[in-house]
Structure formats: C-alpha cells, structure tokens
Design brief:
Elements lengths: L13 H14 L12 E5 L11 E6 L6 E6 L6
Antiparallel strand pairs: 1-2, 2-3
The protein binds zinc ion (ZN).
The site of zinc ion (ZN) has 7 residues, from loops.
C-alpha cells in the first residue's frame, strides 16, 4: 500500500505513539493523546489464518484528528 507523502497526513510523534501502544497493551483501549477521545480500533486481517500463521494487527484511529497508530499484536499463546 503506498502512503501519501509525509506532511499531508497528520502523524503522532514517537512519544505519543508509544503512549498509545502502552495504554492499549495495558487496558485494551487508548485515548488520543492530543484530543483525549477514545480511539477506534480496527483489526487488520493477515489473511493467513488457515496456515496457522496468524499475525494479528491492530489499527487505532482517532475519530477527531484522524491520526492513527498501527502495530502488531503478538499472541504467544493460543487455546
Ligand atoms: Zn486525536
């Protein structure tokens, strides 16, 4: 997926992105550090579940400023 050039799309700073990741890891939810509103989650499917190689990705999107954080969710255990 090509991304638009930097500057056209608002981005978090590294420290803000880290805070979002940590909040999400700890609470299962995160608020936008800039707006203070709850960020929306979207799961991004890898499409490889049938192969037993399920790498889950989450995308947190702020509905207010539209900044987003994309990260991998590592799941070491399964039932
Ligand atoms: Zn925001």
């Amino acid at each position: 997926m090509p991304e638009p050039p930097t500057g056209e799309r608002a981005q978090f700073e590294a420290a803000e992105e880290k805070a979002v990741r940590e909040a999400y890891a700890a609470q299962g939810a995160a608020d936008c550090p800039r707006c203070g509103v709850r960020m929306r989650e979207r799961a991004i499917g890898g499409g490889s579940f049938g192969l037993g190689y399920a790498r889950k990705r989450e995308w947190l999107l702020c509905p207010s400023c539209h900044r987003s954080v994309l990260f991998d969710v590592k799941r070491g255990t399964r039932n």
